[in-house]
Protein 1
Amino acid sequence: MDSLEELETTAQEVLGKLKSRNPFQSHWDTAAFIIFLVFLGTVLLLLLLACLHCCCHHCCRQSSRSPKVRAMQESSKGVDNLALDP
């Protein structure tokens, strides 16, 4: 029951701050919230770029290469290691 009362008290505080239209008590609270939003936006942008890379990488990669380059890459099976030669 104690945790339920604590949760209710916290909800009342949050609702009171929203009703007063002053959700942040100081400029530091506002700055921290803005930093959090910038971080969240950066993470979402990186996720979007990763999804675009995964979805569009195959279609863009196939059309941008010439047939000669594709044939050379498909025929090569490895790289000669010249450090092993006597």
Protein 2
Amino acid sequence: MDNKREHNRTPLKVQLRIDHPVHGQMLVTTRDISESGVFVVIDDAQRLLQIGELVSGQVQGLPMEAPVVQMEVVRFEPSGVALIFQRD
């Protein structure tokens, strides 16, 4: 299978707080990140999230407060969910 990704993924394991308009806050762990999005490990992702939904996210545990970014749910895998960053 050809990799048709526009941006390379970089393995990255950090805590990410996701704020969902219905389910509230979820603390998840990232698997990888690229210029266009992030993959997060989350149990029951398909029960909690829907394709096309917008959520906000903020990396946790840094020495300073990280920016809050808007993301869209784009894909599910058995281990989690792919989110793309929303650009202004």
